[in-house]
Amino acid sequence: MDFRPTPETTEFLNREHGLLIAGEWTRARGGGAIESVNPATEQVIAHCAAGGPDDIDQAVAAARRAFEHGPWPEMSPTARGRLLWQLADAIEAGGELLTELEILDNGMPRDPAATQAVPGAAKMLRYYAGWTNKITGRTIPADPRPGQDTAPLTYTVREPVGVAGQIIPWNYPLGMAAMKLGPALAAGCTVVLKPDEHTPLSALYLGELIRKVGFPPGVVNIVPGTGETAGASLATHAGVDKVAFTGSTETGRTIVHAAAGNLKRVSLELGGKSPFIVLPDADLAEVAATAARLGFFLQGQNCQCPSRVYIHEAVYEQVVDDIVAAARALPVGPGWEPATRVGPLISAGQLGRVENYIASGLADGAELLTGGTREDRVGYFLSPTVFAQTTGDMRIVREEIFGPVICVQPFSGTELDGIAQLANDTNYGLVASVWTRDLSVAHELAGRIKAGVVGINHHGGGDICAPFGGYKESGWNREFGAEGLEPYLETKTVVIRYR
Ligand code: NAD
């Protein structure tokens, strides 16, 4: 590796990483281990314990104790908020180390690791820190019961749902951990967080910070491990009240079945196949630059990726040429090189999966305009890839590739139902965007497109105070904003007859 991390990062990488259970770093009871591989060098960079069912049992028991007893349930909402705020401060103070961990463990380019992932995690925790003392119930104007003169005082309180099992993917590790922890802790839940087996490092450092700022033991437990072992144990565990999952739609279905035993609450942030619709009056230069930038953001390993680009035939040739030129201009390389905008894919397995999709596109008759091949270097690098001549029945158009591949397709006419039909021709419904200067067309299409977020001259989620999540097979519930608290809260109605 021709990159030298800071001494602090090097020291962290060289540690023997355990599991954070009940406030202590422990070994995996079954001796499970994970090797963290730098996807830009294919070299092992750290060794971590991998939790199994016994470890999940211990972590759930610790989270239960911390939920029922001790300082956490007695802590004032403001004090809980202060801890979240202090964790955000600690993330910022450790920003360079966390940035380097995301670069090395995930392959993320420095921009966005330093500019979005780390500050975004701090911002998320601060946002939910502000919510701790604003979670309120309602007073209900109930009628008197039959035979009674006065109505009982009737009100609701919102209570934390209990122990939350949180399972996150590898594509945006620190950000995912913060998205999960912020609302759960603000609501007063305790947590067992399972980071993805490919990217445990930033969550483990977060565990260090959680100890340092003084969260009571057991409030946050962190157990990296594989999906089939640690993840499945958490999803089925009878001691878990709620499971929050971000990952593929396929695994989401497995989680739903696994959660049925004790009917735990389930929230799901799943895959996407997001349409990006370009009308002839759009700002064409911005459209092409944005489609390429967001299409290859995180190497396309991004649930919001505008992977289906529909361009009106009147401007098709120009926009496609510009997208291809913008894709070719994106510097591909290791995340630590400052110019890099497209890093390596997460693993050899993911690279192979994406290469299979490219082969299927070619076999189905799609035209490869650029990319499609592995870069000639060590590491799991794949050139930004653009397919044309695609049709709605091709696998590359129907399935989430989760790699640097976008499909462009012309459409004719400006009939709004037809355009909405193109956008909605998918099992997913996470994000969509429409590019036009005509406000009434934009407004009409925003109403007809079935997606959790519809952008007009914008693609992707809004700020963290706006809800984010999917229609159809893109998920259940919403994250971010006030809505993000809901999956972590129960509603209790209190009825008081006072005379
Ligand atoms: P994945 O479903 O394979 O894994 C996600 C997590 O689930 C990992 O921690 C994994 O260990 C765990 N897991 C795997 N099998 C499990 C099982 N049987 N039981 C319990 N846990 C299990 O997904 P991935 O490939 O790591 O991530 C990519 C997917 O995540 C894509 O589909 C992407 O769209 C989705 N994603 C969605 C959002 C969103 O907000 N909607 C954000 C990022 C990623």
Based on the model shown, name its key terms:
single chain, 499 residues, alpha/beta, Aldehyde Dehydrogenase, Chain A, domain 1, Aldehyde Dehydrogenase, Chain A, domain 2, 2 domains, 7-stranded mixed beta sheet, 6-stranded mixed beta sheet, 16 helices, 21 strands, 38% helix, binds nicotinamide-adenine-dinucleotide
What does this entry show, briefly?
This protein is an alpha/beta fold.
List the helices and strands and how they pair.
Layout: H1 7-13, E1 16-17, E2 19-21, E3 24-26, E4 33-38, E5 43-49, H2 53-68, H3 71-74, H4 77-93, H5 95-106, H6 110-129, E6 139-140, E7 153-160, E8 163-167, H7 173-187, E9 190-194, H8 201-213, E10 220-222, H9 227-236, E11 242-246, H10 249-258, E12 265-269, E13 275-278, H11 284-295, E14 308-312, H12 316-329, H13 348-363, E15 367-370, E16 385-388, H14 395-398, E17 405-411, H15 416-424, E18 431-435, H16 439-448, E19 453-456, E20 475-476, E21 489-496
Parallel strand pairs: 1-5, 8-9, 8-11, 9-10, 11-12, 13-14, 13-18, 14-17, 16-17, 18-19
Antiparallel strand pairs: 2-3, 4-5, 6-7, 7-21, 12-20, 15-16
